Amino acid sequence: MRTRTDIIAVICFFVSGFAGLVYEICWIRKASLVFGATTLAVSTVVAIFFTGLAVGSYLCSRYCQNINRPLRVYSLVQICIGVAALLSPAAFSLSENIYRLFYQYLVNRFFLLALSRALLVALLILPPTILMGTTLPLFCRRYVTNERKISLSVGLLYGLNTLGAAIGCAVCGFYLIPCIGVNRAIYMSAILNISIGLLVLVSQWRARRQEETMRQYQSFDIPQSRSAALTTTGKIAHYRVLTMAILFFLSGFAAMGNEILWVRFLSLLVYNTVYTYTLTLTITLIGIVLGSMLTCRFMDRTHRREFIFGAAHVLTALSVLAVITQPVERWKTVIDAQQFSVQIGVFLVVLLLPAILSGLCFPLAIRMVVAQPSLAAVGVGKMSAINTTGGIVGSLAVGFLLLPWFGLQKTFLLTTLIGLLIAFTTWIVLEGTLKASLRNGMIVLSSFAWLTVLLLAPVKLPADFLAGEDVLVDYREGLSCNLAVVEQTESHTVVLTIDRLWQGQDRKNHQIMAAHVPMMLHDRPEKICVIGIGVGQTASRFLLYDIKQLDCVDIESKLRPLVCEHFECAWMQDGRIRFIVEDGRNYLTNTQNKYDLISVEVGQVFRPNVACFYTVEFYRQAREKLNANGILCQFVPLRSFGSNEFCSVIRTFLEVFPESILWYNRNEFLLIGSVDRRLKVSHQRLEMLHEDKAIAKDLEFAYWGGPEEWLNKRDIFLSGFLCGPNDLKTVAGRYAVCYDDLPALEYVTAEVGRQNVSPEPVIELLKPSLQTADVILDREMDIAVISKIRLMRDKNLKNVLAEFFYSLYLDGYGFSFLQKAILQNADNVKINNSFGNAFALNAQYDQAIKYYTEALRIDWQYYKAHRNLAYVLGKQGIFDRAEKHYLEAVRINPRHARAHKELADIYFKQKKNDKAVEYYQKALEINPNWAQARYAAAMALIASNRFDEAVSQLKQAIKLAPEWDIPRQALVYITRRK
Fold first, then answer.
1. Which of 193, 318, 327, 817 is 20–30 Å from 301 (CA)?
2. If we measure between CA atoms, which residue out of 201, 184, 185 comes closest to residue 79?
3. What pLDDT digit, counting tens, does each position of 105-117 carry?
4. Could you name the CATH architecture of 235-466?
């Protein structure tokens, strides 16, 4: 019968699990700010956290037999954990200063830097985590007292503590951090630890009968030396205990390895945000609780423990394979779903069953090596240490060796194969109640099921998920993300994506202005730092100017070689460049280098560890790395921010850079700041727009129009200026400053995700504070020029709304949004072209021609309008004009396969068969897997009496589209004719 003291202790045990997960999440976040958000840095923190748990479990197992009052020790442990946690925020701040001292000497020495980081993290979190590791063995020492209920007692205790951890994870990740901040969450948990320690201590002191209970409990003990090994735990044979230790190590290896792989796999289904880790860990912990609670009741009564342990690992392996081998078509309804309920459903489908099976295995494994309740604490402590050590090795091996070497799919196969080997070894070595024939049959059946799924798997990970409806050109599985090069089907634009998010393309875009604008605002910048290089649209433009050094910092080591293979990369050979693979924030915090200009090119604020580039702490760190008169330039993505978040970012920026301006750059405004120098554009720098041939040529670019809106014109360039420092202060008002400790911006943007937030509130907010560029020029301007600049500036802002409505139209929200878009900006080339498409689809060709012609009037180089106009003219039989526009389309974009094919169709209709064959071949050079183009080429070859070539094209068309009967019929016809 349990006393009031026992009830209090068990409740406190639940609460300590809650606090432990709060620490884990908060310490990982704090460590990523101090030591960087690279995969190695974060994994080091996680590995040391679990190392502490393993060491604590092992040490407690060594000495717990000599502990007569485990709850008293537990209470002291909780008080010590709380005190250590209270000191941890200050300790992290101190470690940051120590880390900075030697960072400059070790930044180019990978292993030494990693070792120093690991040592500092160990000093910070090993002491409290070692103490945390003692709690489960201590409770087992106190409450596992019945030989017939060992599994039940261990399972209930393990499940109860894990349930507290699951709730702690969810509460911390979804509520505490965004609402009260990281440090306060730590302090709150520390107070919980100290409180439960004091509560248990007081309840022990008040329970007069506890001494008698403990004496009765001690009568069950078997004398044992302090150095007792795991092999002495009761009546279990030595070889069985040793085998289970090895198998439990491998079980931890496979389980934690799969956790790393699941995070990467889930990034193929839902976009990675601050919620991803919380959801993953919470659902995993809930599954462990269910597995532990649902199975512990009958594990003491069954003699098939070895069979169940093996079967659990077989089911885990097969369920993992069953999920990862589902073809991408079956995931299409949930991929990138915006509804939170759908996202939770995806996480449950992927994670829950393996987690339940994992929860089943822990109490089962303990029961397989513990025969007497008095030795439960020893067994739990040592087996927990072994399993946790396996998990540490598994997570590090998978994250840093197996994933980079073998890729996601092969690594999944390896971890599931380990699961099968655990099961087979258990059945062969430990299972003694089943006939050999039955065991062998289960092994053969399991192996056959695993091989069948493997051989019949229709999916290739991650390749099948990276391109969507477009064509995957190449990809790399980096340490922390999937990088892909994708060719868009319609435009044949080559795009770089990171975790399926757009990062840049092979055609000039607005990213170039993040270099040109700040370079015009600084008179003589010599040393420049770019954080985040993408495909180099921004970084390469700095090299057009007379600079001495360009440092390009990016967190992903595989990015640069991939960009070199598929994008223009001659600029990377420039001797002024230095490439640094490092977390950009960590580099700026700790480097001793100073710069004249820092450009922050990180994108998608809702991604993990991106919002920390918008906090006042980051801006202060960046300010320290600027030379006198230095400036910082940063994107402000309107589609990710509501008006409140926009104002908070402006307010935060102004806290550190009071002399700041806001500049138009399509949907990503530029925020450019200086500490004490009023930003000005000198007449001399402006002259470079037309006097410097390289810069003038590069700025033959318009945000939304044609040559009339090219940015190498002084008035067009200056129309990008929106607000000066005084006006920005008015806009910012008294909105909240963004801090590292209270990362509200990260959570708000994660809730928004990739949804298009209307920029209209921000535009309306800015309108009263808008200025013209004459306030930042060092010379007076003509009133007529100022008026022209003002008109262009207003049109730019209207274009922000136009493109927002246009994006809604493209997302399928209806033609009315396209009408709203053109009302905002009738000179937007893309919108006019889309109007033409809308009319062409309804066979209203006269209206379609009108809008295509208007698009080409604005920008004759817009190849899409040439192709679309040619197509409509061809439908009407106006072949001469159609040919002219098709030729223009393929001249401007030689890789437009559809334009080549349709031009060939025009020639074929006019019986110009040789010309038709020529352009069919060009289309197939661009897209060799186009069955329809091969069939059309075959028809033109037949008309030219080139039957052998036609047969070859038809055979390839049949191979590419076996369900298509027409090429097969044509092949029969040619064969008979020959």
1. 318
2. 201
3. 877 777 788 788 8
4. Up-down Bundle (1.20)
